[in-house]
């Protein structure tokens, strides 16, 4: 292979590697943003809402069981 071929191969490999790194960086940034609260539409906000509802149901069931066991 000539030096031009090696340079082309090296440049091609570096370009592919750069695109892959950029893609992974984008995906990580996107997924991490879902774990931060943002006033309602993130995954974190959804989990928090479900957690509050579950706690409320648990408290209601506990009160119900306490009232009927007496």
Describe the protein in words:
Helices cover 81% and strands 0% of the residues. The chain is mainly α. It folds into 2 domains: 1-33; 38-70. It starts with a helix and ends with a helix.
Summarize the structure.
The chain has 70 residues and is mainly alpha-helical. 81% of the residues lie in helices and 0% in strands.
CA radius of gyration: 27 Å
The rounded distance between the terminal residues' Cα atoms is 90 Å
Share of helical residues? over 70%
The low-confidence parts are none
Topology order in helix (H) and strand (E) letters = HH
Secondary structure layout:
Elements: H1 3-33, H2 43-68
Summarize this structure as a short list of keywords or feature phrases.
2 domains; 2 helices; 81% helix; mainly alpha; rod-shaped
